[in-house]
Design brief:
Chain lengths: 515, 238
């Protein structure tokens, strides 16, 4: 029978069958031990139950996908692949949201093809990838433009994207500011929003070390922890208020940054990264073991909430001579006030970081950071004191981490070393790298995706991390340098005539303007 | 005397790269240091600007000793170094690169210095907004020299400005160096493998062989010296 299919496929058909058979075999070999059996609790103890539908589904999907890839090798068959891929994507999507679909259509049950949500998701993604690849091939073949033309087009496209980014940033800021008053806004949305903005701030803080100075810091969470604990301990032992502790937390984190910076700045690349990783762990382990002060793994609870700038408390009843927030403003009491207040607090702190970062990029120290990232030796030969410049990056970046930490402590009301594990550093670093190092907007988008997506996919229950991982992989494939890797120049000539045309001498004499 | 190097020994680990080098550069001179690959030319330059440290010997610049000083302090004294391989900042624009060079200079004179660099290399003005990495090799070399000039140096150290450039571009670069020297009385110490061009441009020259100075004289003398001819000039350069 394989003969007849092979001859039907025309020349090369035999190798096609061989390849598909091989794919099926590998798929089977991987699926059987991992997926084909599940244990169920039965009367007589644990029983093995076969999941052959899932196995068959996986192998079939793999073979179809492989077939699509093979068909794409020879031009002329893209349309079929595109159609098939799109069909698979639609089926996957419908299966994924089967309950919603059934509800909309008024059906009792959607007749899902995929045996599980994960498989539906994979089917959808796989189909979409194939369809997109086919579409790209078709459009490439149809547009017989030269490479230079395409480059020019890409350039103008890039220009448009850049403009779009500015608009997008403005919309995002507006959205962030009005979020509490949106009709869909509730306690849950505010909590997720606060969490995302916290990570935006952490990302922007780490961006100074990683994105600008080009030093890979794997232990950023240490500064976050220092900030959080300095407020928590200050409140517990000395009774300091949040507003008093905030600058102190930043300063303390900055000095920890300098303490770490001094010994490690002579190291480079991987070695540097490993030491920062160790530093992050050291801080966490100290917090666990210094039981007398930090209460060890039990953490610190009852961390006081911030008051409203010393004017009112954010509790139901006023205390220490301060009126409660709703009394002060003559409002009805609502527990949402505090949530919204905390949200605006972190938005303001993040905005501070953003403004600071944009400004400092145009100062000599900011330029020196970027130069340092590009070429260490050239920097030295230009008279840059590398130690000072790197330490400044470390200190400032750490300070932002410390501020965010103090906020975290006051928002949660409880902190323990559990909150400051390596995975936090990794997430913050992933936000910076995926956003496109140095790009504030990119980092904000990445933070929204990385923190928001797992929330959006909460319906998928335990499979949401699979969706999350797939998202990361896709970004790595299509945007390997980050979502927005464009870098705005920090100096421009006064006259903005396009390159290639001579600039009038007057413009040169007038020097540069900060753009 | 602007720069004096006396008995300088520099080591890379156990390897002695410079074995007691003596050299001096007077104000307003172009001095060429020629030698084969691995003779220690770049090491000498790196030692002068403090990237490598001399284990023995003394380096004085404008009357004060700089042997053990940090690079950034040496640059602040007025020594500008254009390192081997140009080392411009590829992701930064031409203008930003030049701006980086002006870090140690008086900001009051930034506009003036920028105009002077653009006057010397009009190409840089045309490409001011372009990224450094997109420039041609010759333009990158211009940028490297321009960037060094932005720090208002009194002594310009150039390491192999002709490296990897087409003959015509090499000519342009050397012409620019000549103009910098003639118009601004800039003192230049030039390290080159391209002995022919370097010696024709220089007032004086030194020949460095395996970490030691073996010969010195005016550019013309060295050009005509049979040993120099045999070792560095034969083989294509007319």
């Amino acid at each position: 029978m394989s003969r007849s299919i092979a001859s039907a496929m025309g020349p090369g058909g035999e190798s096609l069958v061989k390849e598909l058979g091989f794919t099926a075999l590998i798929g089977l070999a991987l699926t059987v031990p991992l997926i084909s059996y599940e244990t169920i609790d039965d009367v007589g103890g644990l029983q093995l139950q076969g999941r052959w539908a899932a196995t068959a589904f996986i192998v079939a999907a793999l073979v179809m996908g492989r077939l699509g890839i093979i068909l794409l090798r020879t031009p002329g068959r893209e349309t079929w692949v595109a159609a098939g891929g799109a069909l698979a994507a639609v089926v996957g999507l419908l299966d994924l949201f089967r309950d919603t679909v059934a509800g909309v259509l008024g059906l009792e049950r959607w007749p899902a093809i995929s045996p599980s949500y994960t498989l539906a998701f994979l089917l959808g993604v796989g189909g979409a990838v194939l369809a997109i690849r086919a579409a790209v091939q078709i459009s490439r073949r149809n547009s017989a433009i030269s490479k230079a033309e395409r480059d020019a087009r890409m350039e103008s496209l890039g220009e448009q994207v850049r403009k779009l980014v500015r608009v997008f940033a403005a919309v995002a800021v507006l959205f962030a500011l009005t979020l509490p008053f949106m009709p869909f806004s509730n306690r849950y949305v505010m909590d997720v929003g606060t969490l995302i903005v916290t990570y935006v701030m952490l990302g922007w803080g780490l961006n100074i070390i990683v994105g600008y100075a080009g030093l890979l810091d794997l232990g950023y969470v240490a500064f976050y922890a220092v900030g959080a604990y300095s407020y928590a301990l200050g409140a517990q032992y000395l009774g300091v208020s949040f507003w008093l502790a905030l600058p102190f937390a930043g300063l303390l984190a900055a000095s920890f940054g300098l303490i770490l910076g001094f010994p490690v700045l002579r190291l480079r690349g991987d070695y540097f990264a490993i030491v920062t990783l160790g530093f992050g762990e050291i801080i966490r382990i100290i917090l666990i073991n210094w039981y007398d002060v930090t209460n060890g793994p039990d953490g610190i609870s009852g961390i006081p909430r911030p008051d409203f700038f010393g004017l009112a408390t954010m509790t139901r009843r006023g205390s220490d001579g301060l009126p409660a927030f709703h009394e002060y403003f003559g409002l009805e009491y609502s527990s949402e006030h505090r949530v919204i207040f905390l949200y605006y607090l972190i938005v303001a702190m993040a905005a501070l970081v953003a403004v600071f970062t944009v400004r400092i990029r145009r100062l000599p120290i900011g330029r020196a950071w970027e130069a340092l990232r590009e070429d260490d030796i050239a920097c030295a030969s230009l008279g840059i004191n590398r130690t000072t410049v790197k330490l400044a990056a470390f200190g400032i970046s750490a300070a932002w981490g410390g501020f965010a930490g103090a906020f975290f402590a006051t928002r949660q009301g409880f902190i323990s070393p559990e909150s400051f594990t390596f995975i936090e550093s990794a997430i913050i670093l992933a936000i910076v790298v995926m956003g496109g190092m140095g790009s504030l907007v990119g980092i904000a988008i990445a933070a929204a995706l990385l923190i928001g997506l797992p929330e959006v996919f909460r319906d998928l229950a335990e499979y949401r991390m699979v969706a999350f991982g797939a998202g990361l992989v896709m970004i790595m494939i299509w945007r390997p340098r980050g979502l927005l890797s464009h870098r705005e120049p920090s100096v421009l000539l006064a006259d903005r005539s396009p390159p290639g045309r001579p600039v009038p001498a007057k413009a040169v004499a007038a020097g540069e303007v900060a753009q | 005397m602007m720069l004096q190097v006396e008995g300088v020994h520099t080591f890379y680990g156990a390897i002695e790269a410079l074995k007691g080098v003596d050299l001096h550069v007077d104000e307003g001179e172009i001095v060429a240091l020629i030698g084969a690959n691995g003779a220690g030319k770049s090491t000498l330059l790196m030692t002068i600007c403090g990237v490598a440290k001399a284990r023995r010997g003394r380096i004085t610049f404008a009357g004060s000793e700089i042997t053990a000083e940090r690079t950034d302090d040496i640059v602040r004294r007025g020594v500008a170094c254009s390192p081997e391989g140009r080392r411009i900042f590829p992701r930064m624009t031409v203008l930003e690169n030049l701006r980086m060079g002006a870090l140690t200079a008086d900001p009051e004179r930034y506009d003036e210095n920028l105009a002077a660099v653009f006057e010397l290399f009009p190409r840089l003005k045309e490409r001011a907004q372009q990224r450094g990495g997109t420039l041609s090799g010759g333009e990158q070399q211009m940028l490297a020299i321009g960037r060094a000039l932005m720090s208002e140096p009194t002594l310009l150290l150039l390491d192999e400005p002709s490296l990897g450039l087409a003959p015509l571009v090499v000519k342009q670069i050397f012409e620019a160096i000549r103009r910098i020297n003639a118009q601004r009385r800039m003192t230049v110490l030039l390290v080159e493998q391209n002995a022919h061009h370097a010696l024709r441009l220089a007032h004086r020259g030194y020949v460095l062989v395996t970490g030691q100075i073996t010969m010195t004289g005016t550019g013309q003398e060295l050009l005509e010296n049979p040993e120099v001819k045999a070792a560095y000039l034969e083989g294509g350069h007319a």
